[in-house]
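Bug: C-alpha cell stream looks shifted between consecutive jobs. Job 1:
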Amino acid sequence: MKQIPHSHGTVYTTTRPLGILGTVAAVIGLIIAAVFGAVFFVALMGLLLVVGLIVAARVWWTTRELRAELRRSGATIDEALRQRAGAPPFGSQSQGTSGTGNQSGQTIEGEYREVDR
C-alpha cells in the first residue's frame, strides 16, 4: 500500500490492481449475485402470478351467478345489479305511498332515527 501525502495534510492510500486472482474472485461474485438475483426475480414473479390467479378465480367464482342471470334474462349488468339490490329499474317511477320522490323517479334510500322532543 502506498501513501501519498496531500497539501491539506490528508493522506491518501492507493492499492495495486486486484491481479488475476482478485479479478477471478470478482467475476465469480458477480455471477453468484446475478444467479441469486434471477432466482429472486423468478420467485417474485411466480408469487405474483399465483396471487393474480387466486384473485381472478375468486372474482370468477363470485360473479358466476350474476353472469348466469344475465345470460338468462338478456339484461345489462347495471339492470341486473339494480334488480339484485331491490332497486327499481333506472327511469321507472317509484311506487311509494307518500308520492314523494325526486324528479327522475328514483327512490333515495337512507336510514333515520325518530327523536323524542
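Job 2, same session, no restart:
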Amino acid sequence: MHPPSTWYIKQAAGIEKGSSNPGHDLAGYITLKQLYHIAEVKKLDQPGVPLQSVFRSLLGTAKSMGVEVITDEEAQAREVPVEESGKGGGGGPKKKGKKK
C-alpha cells in the first residue's frame, strides 16, 4: 500500500498543505508528467482500474487541493523549478487572478 494521493501531490508541488480556499487561492503547481508518474504508482493500489481513470481522479484531487496542473512548457514559461523525480519544486502559494 502506498501513501495517500494528497501526499504525493504535496511532495511534487513542494508544499506542506493544500489551499484553504481552492479555486481562489493556489497552493502550488505540478506538471502533467509529475501527475502521470503519481498515477502510475497509485495504479498499483487499484488493480483492474485503468490508468486513465486513476489519472483523472488525481486531477480532481489536485484541483481540490488548490494545486494547478500545468504542462512542462508552462512550467518553463513561469520559471517554476521542476525535478524529473516528481518531487518538490512545484511552486509555493500564489493568489489566482480573476479571469476576464
